[in-house]
Amino acid sequence: MTALKEYERLESIGLWRETPDGQRKEVVVAFGDASLVLRDSNDRPLTHWSMAAIERTNSNQRPAIYTVDPDGHETLEIDDKTMIKAIERVRNRIQRARPKPGRLRVWISAITLCAFVIAGVVWLPEATARYATGIVPDAKLEDIGRRALAQVNKLTGTPCSSPYGERALRLLEDRLIGTTSNRILIVDMDQRQSALLPNGNILINKSLLSDQNGPELMAGYVLMERAMQDERPQLYDLFLTAGLNTTLRFLATGTINKAKLDQFAESKIMGNPSNPRPDNLHELFNVAQITSTPFAKSDLRYGDLAAIDNYAKQSIPLLSDEDWLALQEICD
Predict the structure, then answer these.
(1) pLDDT (tens digit per residue) in 79-114
(2) Quick one: 41 and 91 in the same domain?
(3) Which keywords describe this protein according to UniProt (predicted)?
(4) Same domain? 85 vs 208
(5) pLDDT tens-digit profile of 7-24?
(6) What domain range is 196 assigned to?
């Protein structure tokens, strides 16, 4: 489902340049619920662009050129009229929701805030959390993720690491995540098998490395957290659980109360597991071209995925036997 109800699915071709000196690459652009997903010709994800962060650098010209980088270093060119129209509609909605300078803005904001409080105290925290999530810069997001991981490490110990194990882990990231902005970290999480940090990094329980059949079970939990991040960013959950006052203070100062962040980090280890929609998770298994059956048998909530496993007999190997063995020894 996309951000616009009239489109069940919307895709187009685009030209993506990751750096100013890099070559433009032809990519498939998929219009999602809260982001654009860029995939290569093999249908492997390259990166996700948050709708709230997208800016257009050449108004009313074609091909349209978009960026999520304040300096415009990373760009995406799109010539498809339908895709451009859809992106512009969502951008206009987001722009209208953002505060405007001037005295009128102050009065409108005050009246709107009072109306929100009177209408109900439930909607406002969610709307504020959603807005704050959409405007957090990448550098601040990484800082929040590092602080959350530091608190998690008090409960799990530091992530496992070894030269050959790290190499195998990077291979898995390339296949399952497709972007260097997010990483997989192996830790000791006791009963919980996986968790997701606000910056998109994924924690995996080292117990999953003991599966003698291969890395497919572990990969299933990685994809589950990826699906969760696509549906409901963990930064949004952080703001929602921290409360309205904390979120408003963040919007004003750019800081989050340490106690609130620590409490949220602990919930990633002690709280309930992630619960993305099965259809979204199924799509990620298909994109990665791996079997979902080992994961479906491990997590009964997703048992039906085994019945619709498109790669039960033709899954492309995730790792060589040598790399899987190296990954299994990463915590030794």
Answers:
(1) 999 989 988 888 888 887 766 555 556 666 667 766
(2) yes
(3) Membrane, Transmembrane, Transmembrane helix
(4) no
(5) 677 899 999 998 888 899
(6) 138-328
pLDDT tier for residue 27 given thresholds of 50, 70 and 90? very high
Q: How many domains does the chain have?
A: 2
Does 103 map to a domain? no
67 within domain boundaries: yes
Average of per-residue pLDDT values in the chain: 85
Do residues 165 and 252 both lie within one domain? yes
Last-in-domain residue among 97, 127, 155? 97
The position carrying tokens 């109800």 is: 5
Q: Which two tokens stand for residue 138?
A: 């990448």
Structure token pair of residue 108: 């409108």
